[in-house]
């Protein structure tokens, strides 16, 4: 069998910026092991596999190197950009069936705007436990860490400055203890999402990092689903004064990315999060299986 594939850099409008994702068109019916093997072959963080849907315009499956996840942000942007690149969709609105529910999307050329689902606020996690995962001190964390999901759960952790953010390094024994404390084992909660309230550039409002555990690559250049969860947390906790801001990530990896973010609804009743970014189709080809 052969499948059309597009490799797309999401949250950037230039080659090798943002975060790459390979989109396998009409590959949603492939076995899980094949999908994960393809992700490992690419050395990317995530890849997507599309197919027909009875519930939405298109079905999208999201895979890491070691498992399927219900939703991911940069692969959503990449998938829609790949569909637009091949003229499989036109500019305008469409819906995606994901493991986290129906995700509304709007596309205009290479700009993709997705509306992530209303956040689910989970457990607060002791700052010392999360700090140990990143090899920093609990005093470096300026707000109580909390698990938040807009389709995929992350422990949002706000650190005091960019210098602290750049010092974070994942400690695997501490990460396993963190998962044990939450009562999960990697499949339900992603690694902590570290953020500081200063941009990587003069235009940015936040700067973030996501360090990942094996078999994934060591760090995710841009994380759209975590950005939605982070935005919900910052707005609900009163850490930002406006619901619209520019999120930045990936600059330390030489893959700078940006997303326009808007939290919908009041602080105590958020209805969704809009995350918008550009995408660049880097290369296209055919997968032979």
Characterise the protein shown here.
This protein has 289 residues and is α+β, with helices and mostly antiparallel strands. The protein is 21% helix and 37% strand. The protein is built from 6 helices and 17 strands. The protein has an 8-stranded mixed barrel with strand order 1-2-3-4-6-7-8-17. A hairpin with a 2-residue loop joins strand 7 and strand 8 (111-116). It is globular. The model has no long low-confidence stretch (mean pLDDT 96).
> Order of strands in the sheet with the most strands?
1-2-3-4-6-7-8-17
User: How many strand elements?
Assistant: 17
Order of helices and strands: EEHEEEHEEEEHEEHHEEEHEEE
As a percent range, the share of helical residues equals: 10-25%
- Mean pLDDT equals 96
Gyration radius over CA: 18 Å
Poorly predicted regions: none
Q: What gross morphology would you assign?
A: globular
Largest sheet: 8 strands, mixed, barrel
Q: Give the strand content.
A: 35-45%
By helix and strand content, what is the structural category?
Answer: alpha+beta
| Beginning-to-end CA distance, first to last residue | 5 Å
Q: Counting H and I runs of at least 4 residues, what is the number of helices?
A: 6
